[in-house]
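Q: My labmate handed me this sequence with no annotations at all. I'd like to see what the chain might look like in three dimensions before we decide whether it's worth expressing. Could you predict it?
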Amino acid sequence: MNRLNEKERKMKIKKPLSGIIIVISILATSCTIRITSADESAVKTAVAQTVIVQQVQVTPTVQILPTATTESTAAPTNTAKPEEPTNTPQPCNKASAVSETYPDDTQILKGTAFEKSWRLQNIGTCTWNANYRVVFYSGDQMGGPDSQALGISIAPGEMVDIVLDLTVPNSTGTYKGIWKLQDDTGANFAQFWVQIEAISISMPGVTLVPILPVVTDLTQEDAEGGSVRSEGSVMTSLYNVGDLPSNGGSQVFVSFDISDIPSGATITEVKVDFSDFDMLDDPFGDLGCLRAYVQNYGTLDASDYISGSVTGAIGRWCSAAELQTAAVDDDFKSALQSKLGDARFQLRLQFNDKTSDSDGTGDMIRFGTLKLKVTYH
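A: Here is what I predict for the chain of 377 residues:
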């Protein structure tokens, strides 16, 4: 695999109510942004992106008209007619800096990998189509990619996040790398850069940049989870919770591998996504609210089934609509934080209000993939 392919990143697009969100990602650090429209020759770079649609209006430059006044003693005079308001034409390709990470001259230990991002807004009149590129222009490349097509369209008014994966050189000093946008004809515009200071040791009065948050997606370990029924049956990798046609109960047990999260990490957010499911009959209407409990069950067996109503739930869903919505949950965050240092984070899901409605019909939630999105530093 060549160096360019190693640096390419995946694109994600989000569409909020107010517009379309598309994010460009490439890991990076510091710099003050300047945007220019000068043409330069094509060069190389790489980008992953997210576009955030945010409509902007081009405000015409308007000359203020003089206020008319009347004086009873003044003789009539001829007054020059003020100029009519005119629109200032915008160029085809133009970008405006919105925000960035890492200001100029941020001090980072030499040899450290870091991420630098810029948010740019298309304030020109032309759409940046999928063949527009981010290209390395000059200076210190710091291991950054050479060139890569945006791969998406960014209309006037939309914003794009450009993220570069860089590494601080192994020698101390100040380093600056310049990148540009390039249109589909090879014309460069919109200059932006990263400038950092590589240092060798911590120095008095110097505050090193904190490590950026890490986001990891956890999914269940199928070999370690499944369902346990009230009569003792163990159904590995089958995540069904509710009641059975026999009027017995079924509980779900799920195991997440957290061994890659450092024991000294601080969990800042846990988003619970149990939205991959279907239902038989009406489990919420007939059985009440579904609850989640921490249970270190180890190897799944019949003894893990818990009868009756219990307390200590860290999660509760009382409708299909609630379960379909991935949501940040502070109780999950606290529970996961307390388990760091262990290899597994294990849960039990059950309907706590009723084991069964005793109607001889199964009321069941059948899960597919259960996910936790964990952010920590």
